[in-house]
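Supplementary Note 3. Input sequence used for the single-chain structure prediction.
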Amino acid sequence: MTNVTAVAAWRRRFLAPQIRWPSWAIDAPVLILAGENDARCPIRQIENYIARLEELGKPHEVYRFDAGHSSFVVEETIRQMEAQLAFAARHLGTPQPL
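The predicted structure, written as discrete structure tokens, is reproduced below.
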């Protein structure tokens, strides 16, 4: 492998936008927290992934919030944690959080 090829491979792996888990490999319910204004992981990319999960009949839930990659608003952070806890409770068969 030449240096140019190695650099190109490195860029594809570490710099290109990517989804870590291919949709066909999902076999457990997935919760997606998505910021509507996320520049790091654009909402269109997330919508494409969600569409593919739906095509494949993979169990998933989506929680969208009005911020970027993460929210620094305490109330929103609490809502996200509530969504995560409720999701886990639903899929693990444990009591819902208060």
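Residues 74-92 form the longest helix (19 residues). The first strand starts at residue 30 and ends at 35.
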